Amino acid sequence: MAFGDKTSNLAIDHYATPSTYGFQSTAAQTKQHTDHAMLHRSLTCKPDTVSHASSIYLTLESGRTIIDACGGAAVTSIGHGNEEVHAAALSQMKRVSYVHTGAYTTTAAEDLAHIILDGNPYGLEKAFFVGSGSEAMDAALKLARQYFYEKGEKERRFLVARKQSYHGNTIGAMSVSSNLPRKIPYEPLLLPNISHVSPAYAYQYKLDFETEAQYVSRLATELDTEFHRLGPQNVIAFLAEPVVGATTGCVPAPPGYFRAVRDICTKYDILLILDEVMCGMGRTGSLFAFEQEGEGVVPDIITIGKGLGGGYAPIAGVLVHKKIVDGLRAGTGMFNHGQTYQAHPLNCATALAVQKLVKREGLVGRCKRMGVVLERMLRDKLGDKMYVGDIRGRGMFWGIEFVRGKGTKEAFEPGLEFGVRVQRKAFDLGVAVYPGSATRDGIKGDHILLAPPYIVTEGDLATIVKVVVDAYDAVEREIRTNRARI
Ligand SMILES: *Cc1c(COP(=O)(O)O)cnc(C)c1O
């Protein structure tokens, strides 16, 4: 899209809303902070300083305590301030703080790979650790291309992803993403050979007369048709988030969708790359989100991130199926990609401590059980509200989509910032939630995302939901009062 054309102008006007990346702080909203050297996300709005974090609570410099009901961006899993993790990090720091992976490895990295891939679950055989979800996506894309390159299928050059998805912010990861507000300004720099098919987003896109199965079949046909347009022998991979995260707000695919997708990919030997950076590592109530898509729905490559280190370390990973590893074994025997800080010992030891704790305390199971509680509370308390269109999610990963009318599912004007307003009110009332905009189509739509740490209690959830309801009610009142002016 060029800057001059009409469609992009629409989105450009919109892309820089405060909610493009979620949070909007209430502190010093418009104060210029030229006295600070940090390039914050906003030049006009300085974020609150957090001086202390413990369990599900953040303590601000002002002394206020906030319940972290979104784990940052669905990052915090075991809660903040865990001393067992602190001790593991310190102990690793004292033993080995850094070695280059070209020549060395550490038990921290080996053990982390082992705890995730012990027994080769679903044929996943190897783990590659990097510092962020975006880097993991770039590594996954290169690995997928290298796999075919070494097999002699060098004509495979296309990647197919989905609209309304997010895969990261580096040039590669952003190219496959379609979160429009986050990518439009950089369009001329992005990679070619990438196309996007429809999202699996039943609330907005399943037609009224369609059954779920018919909707799935329509999406499957679209994917098959897209592969044929490109020539299936020219396609490297199809990419998708099993449960779409920040872009649309915790949207799982309709039943049967990933089964159909897997079958179509298998038919043409196109790789299936699942991006579980946000929804993986237990967040949806199973260690891998794809496990809930039915037997045999197994990716060739999966990326993990946020929940891996639970916020204690900047770490993400690529998990690779035996099929791909065997491909490299039969070829150069190398992965032609690397970074200075890959498998960083401190990050790996820290994430290992987090994962040990998740396992020992059965936190993934807990996440699933508490998810049932949270779902019930959200449906009971918010389901009938006039601007609540849809409540969806799994485990400790729930999205609430706001619409102008329940019947039409029409979105509010972006300028209204419905999601951000709810987030701000909730924050004022002591609960942090993650707002999103452009939910429906990259331009319009509003949601908030709830992703509490897996350790929340039923009482915590009741408090969180009560605050979200109060925040919503306040915004509803504001909007109804001002309706004539909107
Ligand atoms: C956050 C996210 C990424 C990017 O991860 P970063 O660590 O921010 O680079 C990629 N994919 C999904 C689904 C994400 O939610």
From TrEMBL:
Keywords: Pyridoxal phosphate. Gene3D superfamilies: Aspartate Aminotransferase, domain 1, Type I PLP-dependent aspartate aminotransferase-like (Major domain). The keyword Thylakoid does not apply. Pfam families: Aminotran_3. The keyword Metal-binding does not apply. InterPro entries: Aminotrans_3, Aminotrans_3_PPA_site, PyrdxlP-dep_Trfase, PyrdxlP-dep_Trfase_major, PyrdxlP-dep_Trfase_small. Belongs to the class-III pyridoxal-phosphate-dependent aminotransferase family. PANTHER family: AMINOTRANSFERASE, AMINOTRANSFERASE CLASS-III. This is Aminotransferase. It comes from Stereocaulon virgatum.
